């Protein structure tokens, strides 16, 4: 059924493509008047699956007329995945592509920008990953999967044909372990722009976008940008808005990168007209804001937890918020930007234990449990679970090393080197933060989509039956002996205003005495609640 639906979607896409190609004949002159002029920048255009240079000729000619030194790839029809494995095929293709790139740059050795349509964009990313010194930037047009977690989000009719056409023994797949995700927020150090369309009927929008958390963590010169433009899949290289955006991004200087600003391409009168008719809120919030993707600087984000979410997800999200709070707390306590003899290593050890031991023992098993439930309703998500488990074991491994180092630092006999500790601490937090962002923006919404609302109560009940279903040690009920120091600190912070006079002289003692009172009050309250609920 899904295949038939996807076949119909494909037909619509082809119809829109035909319209875009027809319009392109009329818009060329106007386009050339408004797009930025190039200064001879080298550009190579890579066609999508089953297409050849013909599909990129029009874009090449427009770019040439605008002053860019644009070339098609010259490797004939893009026949898609061939051979025994996806990895071997990509190795071979990128080697062929870089040969062509070198021909284009010639004796000057100048870097070449790659603009890839669909599968051509995947090849562009992979080539840039392997030869970052020779590539200037990458622009992808509706290219599949920057993230293997969500790469099954594609037209099933097209992937079925691609699998049939691939050589025997190779199943067309770029999901899960066969997925290609090398593009982190900083690696490789060159800009990438993903142009995606909400009505793309081949590579669905989520799979063609750079995950938000990567965009958020990115910085110049390795900027990551998503541009949402309404167009078909196959006609992107003929669409006026897409070509405008491609030329704009090709002309943008890498070292002074500014986010794409669509407003300059709207005639002033059209903006005024919309503002007159609907007020400027409509234009700025719905049209403009949607087009213009801000380049956001890294910032841990405490999220609001909506009331109508399933309890289990609320709990996971509360843990995420705890992680962000603790992370911010330690960063704040680094008064002069580093750990030193004065640092509160006991506190750091508790925070590190929360982030490693608690997450490993309770939080990650719960996430994996939720995803096993997702599989019951949506077996195609198997690779999401696999990838989740892989990331969790990676975090556990890094966490164990961090904890070891923090515990050494707590021991006056074997003080670890504080600067090394800081590097490891920040690296670990960074890994965890991108993991959390991925869960918040991709995986939890996936769980919400696939587990039906009525099933969550049963999922919750099954989880409660498990031994590892303990509460967070930072909640008043769950606070454990091993997190006492941290809990005391948090209690102190929460209770600062009620602090009795005279405690202020000794920082550690004052905090300790003050928080013991608060802690015991909380524990008493929790005990009472437990007793009354068992009566
Ligand atoms: Fe996780
Ligand atoms: Fe998580």
From TrEMBL:
Top-level taxon: Bacteria
Domain Hemerythrin-like span(s) in chain numbering: 313-447
UniProt-recorded Gene Ontology molecular function terms: hydrolase activity
Cellular component GO terms held in the UniProt record: plasma membrane
Keyword Oxidoreductase in record: no
Pfam families: Abhydrolase_1, Hemerythrin
Transmembrane parts of this sequence: none
Keywords: Hydrolase
Residues of the AB hydrolase-1 domain: 43-146
Gene3D superfamilies for the chain: alpha/beta hydrolase, nmb1532 protein domain like
Signal peptide bounds: none
InterPro entries: AB_hydrolase_1, AB_hydrolase_fold, Hemerythrin-like
Family matches, as PANTHER family: BLL2471 PROTEIN-RELATED, HEMERYTHRIN-LIKE DOMAIN-CONTAINING PROTEIN
Protein name: Alpha/beta fold hydrolase
Organism name: Halioglobus maricola
